[in-house]
Fold these 4 entries.
Entry 1:
Amino acid sequence: MTIDVDAMVRDAAALVSVPSVTGDERAALERLGELAAALGLECDLHRHDLAALRTHPDHPGEEAPRDELWGLTVTLPGTRPGRIALNGHVDVVSPGTEPWRLGPWSGAVEGGRLHGRGAVDMKGPVVAALHALAALKDQERPEVVLMAVPSEEDGGLGTFAELERDATFDAALLPEPTGLRVVCAQAGALTFKGEIRGVAAHAAERLSGHSAIDRYVKVHAAFAAHERAVNTDVAHPLMRELPLPYPLLVGQLHAGEWSSMVPDRLVFEGRLGVPVGADLQQARDELQAVLDRALDDGLPPCRLTWEGGAFAPGTTDPDHPWVKTVQEALAAETGSAPLAGVPWGADMRLFTARGIPAVMVGTRDIELAHAVDESVAIDELATVARTIVRAVNRAPV
């Protein structure tokens, strides 16, 4: 097969150079549409009905402000039966506050790597998938649809919208950065917020008050015990291999108003990992019960609120023919194709929830996603593109 690596890198750099922080992705989708058209591929830029999606009972949640939602599909008609979905997001997280050596939107190529926000997560892989479609034009294949989506980082609304529009697929592949492994199990993730009340008093008379911070300390210990319990005897064999399959983290704390005043309020926010096979509401209820037991002290209770993205867990049977097909394709490129589970949420679960077998396979360097000086190896982007071509050619549909 022929992947024009130089052209792929130029296109990936062009896409990285268009800022597309979650909530403002249209310009990047328009640029990707131009790149697709230049490759002779059929593309469709469309606006979703955001208001209708927000009232849908299965709405996957949002965190970033937005007043519009756009999607782009690139379709390669089939020469034999079957339909395969490729899926990748063009939204990225903020560049942060630390300076970048080459700039977050540089799209610079240096030392065999593509640099910039989204290089690995996941504008680079989206362009690799686009060039895989171009390489498939002269080959016999099922129909292939590349979904380029917004809003993955804050819940998956872009992919949810695309699947509401069209879900008639036999299989799906998402080139998320998986470390050149075939991922067929992903944890879920929920974000939560709570407010703990105390009783204010002068610091010199602190025994007459009740510190909200002291109350939270008991909650923090209880959360740590809950995390240990959830990660004991993990059921899914691929998730069991991870050092911490289902993390529970409190990432923000805000408490107190004055250094000599017993704090009467503490607000905390965090993220709850959800096991493969678990129900989201069950996971919410279990954490609330942990909190209730920790604060059983006669003072006001704390009710968790659950805002932002609701990432359900997802899994595809490791013995499914599509998993085996992708494994064979990756092994043909790299010499090995281990199966894996991952502790993070992704849009894969939106396919598996509809009964569409889905896997993720992509480059290394996920630790650089969301980090300063994000980059990806160009040769691994090419490996991903060739793996997609092989998998589509061998698709058992």
Entry 2:
Amino acid sequence: MKDIIVYLIPLVILELALVIPALIHVLKHDRYKFGNKPLWTVVVLFIQIIGPIVYFILGKEED
């Protein structure tokens, strides 16, 4: 069990480090390259690790 936790903790930290800024950006902004706010909220929250990365690449409107 300890072996699993050693690998799981960095993954959880990575997930939170990606999800929190992506979700904040989704909720604060109204314009996206593709899609809308509900779509990006679901993608960021429910597609683990890859969802926030996809948002920053495909969804985030350039400031």
Entry 3:
Amino acid sequence: MTGVETFRDLQREVTEWRRYLHENPELDFREYNTAKFVAEKLASFGINHIVTGIAETGIVALIQGEGGDGPTIGLRADMDALPIIEASNKPWSSKTPGIMHGCGHDGHTAMLLGAAKHLASTRNFKGCAALIFQPAEEVEFPSGGFRMVEEGIMDRFGISQVFGMHTRPGIDIGAFGIRHGATMGSQDDFDIVVKGAGGHASTPHRTVDPVTIGAQIILGLQTLVSRKTDPMESLVISVTKLKASQAYNQIPDQVEISGTVRALASNLRDFAEQEMLAAAQGIARGFGGDVDFRYLRSCPVTFNHPEETELAITAARSLVGHDCVDDNMKVTMGAEDFAYMSEARPGAYIFIGNGPTVPTHHPAYDFNDEALPYGIGYWVKLVETILPV
């Protein structure tokens, strides 16, 4: 028997909460019903210090341990859904057309609520656990994590360390994955407007064709990764949007190119911004055109701090055993706005197994309810590990 058995009594109730949240998804900064549901549950557990309305719909609730004075640690769960048409065909599928919980945030919220119920009933720790229910993780800058930090939650609630958790398809149920240092990439976004001189498609020699220039720029951006960065470093430049003429026989005056940049080091973000502009300008001007360039810095690298990572590993292994915690999992270039919180305070971010399911952000994705007691147990073990009586 492992430590998780202690938390199986909560599974049925927390599954009902999770499926209710899945049926009623809400998008960024509009999680009004979700926030109301969370606040009412927290109050029903006997938690008296509940602050709502942070970053529109965010919540911070404090549970004071009975072991005496001590620090306050933050436990963060995100609450928002995605603008995706659900195709899971589950009985608890989304009731809101075009919106679904495609990234497991319904499970994240439910697991932290389950931990809140347990911690509020036992209070077998010193100091304080600050439960952070965050809106708008899925949006571009400024996201919910950024706004909660900007609105001062770390100082306001005296949070000294902060921890996050995310579901991960492909990791077995009952297993966890984590790593020291950079664990998820930064996210920046860019727009390039290629300026030319349009005309009829039958007389391209009378134009400065921004479509041709744009094609050269798209290819040129890839050489910044393959030929101008260290192959041992991680940089991804992906063009994801391309807008030109809507007519078959028209060469437009301009073409719009947009995309995303992912990196694992801040110096690569600086490199990308400078070199992308230089490359786009050089190519465009060589063909007689020019560019307007916008580079928007969004989410920083998600970085796991040494002490907090070891604490997270210890808590997870106390729950499921040594072999079920991979402490050197592969880095991912996906971004996560928990990074703003771990910039403001030292912290660690762990992944919890969802089993062999489709990936997150897939229309058929669904959080695996068998993971709930493991997530609840991890949060409880983490609090009792860091704040022992």
Entry 4:
Amino acid sequence: MSTQTLPEVDTRPEGTDSTDDDAPKMFHYVRKNKIAESAVMGTHVVALCGEVFPVTKSAKPGSPVCPDCKKIYEGLRPGGDDS
């Protein structure tokens, strides 16, 4: 008698990246000092592109980034996040 491992099959509906319905489709740039406050208190943050939302997820390396936020961020002058 022999055993074999079956290949992993993705059974998620096509077009979804996650089974979590509130998963963001892309991530936005926001002020660092507002992220923790939003995550804990549920307050909304304003992204560089102007979108307003509560922080619910943390971006992982390779996550899709809002192209508008990225363009604005790359145009900012180097420096700290003082305000």
